[in-house]
Amino acid sequence: MATELVDAFRCLLLEAKPVGTERVAVRQAAGRVASRDVRSPHPVPHFRRSAMDGYVVWSEDVADTAPDRPVRLRITGRVRMGEPPGEGPARGEAWAIPTGGAVPEHGDRVIPIEQVRREDDVLVVTDVPTKPHVAEPGEEIRPGALLIADGEVIRPGAVGALVACGLGEVEVYRKPQVALIVTGDELVEPDVSPEPGRVRNTNGPTLASELEAIGCEVHTLGIVPDRPEELHDTFRRVLTGPCDVVLTTGGVSVGTQDRVPRTWLEVGVRRVVGRIDLKPGGPFFAGRAGPKWVIGLSGSPAACLTTYHLLVRPLLLRLAGHRRIVRPVVSARLRTPLRRGADRMRALWARVGGEPPEVEILEEDGVLCGVARANGLVLLRPGTPSLRPGSRVPVLCLDRPEDRAELETPPALPAPLVVGVVGASGSGKTAVIEGLLRRFRAWGIEAAAIKHAAHGFDLDRPGSDSDRMARAQARAVLVAGPDELFVRIAAAPSVDRLVEVLAEVGAHLGRPPQVILVEGFSHPGRPVILVGAGKGTADSPSYTLAAFEAREPAQWEAALDDLAARVRSWMDGGD
Question: Which residues pair with 516 in a beta bridge?
């Protein structure tokens, strides 16, 4: 029985521990993961420094200085950059000092050069700043300050701090050593022109690039045929080697030539996770042989890389000591329809971008082309229906750094069916919407409505509290009563934005609308109901209904029954 994706993730990470630690030179530490907290052993800098170009003086000598009572001090020396501070000025004297120079033993403040006047070897002081302009030891790094926390990636900026503290080495988690094996009788090396029936080995170079990008040391062991004896010998031999992880592609499905899982079991590997309920990427094997990990991925490039990003990359990052091992999952708006639902967990290669984010499913140009262009994986839970444009789907962002420890697959939020209701004033548009809403309610269909008030409206009386808040230019005012609430927003939004707002509000309330009836506006690309023979915004309405006044009550109700059934068929994808 196949394992759910999130359950497989948790099973793998439950057993994943860092592969070990080592000490490396600080200059080689960038990009590595610290295996313990690193704190400053002493202050940086370790001496008092001048914060300004100026002169070192005694505070007592300049305490009574004023523009009409200047103080004159004899300049008797200077501080040079990079040299010990020296004795410093005596009382009644001053020493020149540059920014960053060591403050001498005598003297307790620096007067900036802009606030004094020099007359040969005499310093004339008419104004004394409040600040002493002397930086105490530890201005840049305090003693005991946390420089790097256990599990953090050492960034180039941290290398400078480590060097400043006099640290020559740092303890980091060891890079996982990964042996990469590609299986399959049909494969040839990338530089060989394949005959009919043979294909180039694309998984090997792709996975090697992925592994190197996250800091693994990769040992490529080439192509192994599907013959049992060669698989058996190769697997047994690699388990005696130095690698922490053995990663294979191909031979993990249920065909007669798919011998990889059973061969691993025969050489003593304990299975941790088997087949996953995922499309593509369901064929999978993960096991342990002592401290070593064994991972088997599908030979299909799209399936191989899907499972790599969802499961294998987080596992390898944890083995390398990382705490954050999962990339961001964002909610993005579908640009085009998704015509097939998901009977199992589905992962679709996609391009995501923009703010708020929008996503395009990459299917038209072929699988490998889609993988090449993709920067995201759309994750659809089992039971997700076909989705209209505007639906919100979770997307794992493949071009963003990891920022969390757990893999989550939130549900998709289907966009509601949006139906325009148009017609001349007085034709009965509101009566149509009212009648449809009553029927949808009886059927258990969540519905919402948008009313176009072309000449404005007076929702809240002038001078009320909410009116005063709105006139004070609040971005939005929400008025909450005991049984209902409304939001007043100063804007002229499009119908698309209004639909999004209604859908989001409904989702937050736990009842997202399945259909939204929009009176007025324009409705390109959406079904439109034309009421009466008056004005309409659609050249070819999807449904035409005689005006309310032209029907007897019984005929009107029957017409509304027929219309409600038609709208319901549109919700189900019918014409």
Answer: 418, 448
In angstroms, rounded to a whole number, what is the distance separating the alpha carbons of residues 404 and 539? 51
Helix (H, G, I), strand (E, B) or coil at 528: strand
CA angle (335, 341, 345) in 5-degree steps: 105
Residue 421 to residue 417: CA distance in whole angstroms: 13
Residue where the block lists tokens 């015509």: 339
What residues form DSSP beta bridges with 271? 287
Q: Summarize pLDDT for 109-164 with one digit per residue, the tens.
A: 999 999 999 999 999 999 899 899 999 999 899 999 999 999 999 999 999 999 99
CB 228 within 8 A of CB 264: no
- Report which residue type is found at 158: A
| Alpha-carbon separation of residue 366 from 68, 243, 371 (angstroms) | 85, 35, 9
Q: Is the dihedral of CA 296, 302, 306, 308 positive or negative?
A: positive
User: At 367, phi and psi to the nearest 5?
Assistant: -65, -55
Q: What is the pLDDT of residue 536?
A: 46
Whole-number Å distance between alpha carbons of 85 and 108: 13
- Report the Cα–Cα distance between both ends of the chain, in Å, rounded: 39
Burial class (CB in 10 A: 0-12, 13-18, 19+), 387: buried
The one-letter amino acid at 504: E
β-pairing, 358-361 vs 329-334, is parallel
Average pLDDT over residues 358-378: 85
- Where are any strands of DSSP class E within 298-403? 329-334, 345-353, 358-361, 376-380, 392-397
- What percent of the chain is predicted at pLDDT more than 70? 96
CB 151, CB 322: distance < 8 Å: yes
Q: Which helix (H) or strand (E) holds 336?
A: none
Exposure on the CB side of residue 350, measured as CA atoms within 13 A: 27
Residues 6+ apart with CB under 8 A from 12: 272, 273, 286, 311, 314, 315
Q: Which of 179, 178, 181, 203 is nearest to 190 (CA)?
A: 203
Q: Which amino acid is at 42?
A: H
User: The whole model's pTM is what?
Assistant: 0.81
Pair 190, 202: CB distance under 8 Å: yes
Report d(CA 320, CA 329) in Å as an integer: 22
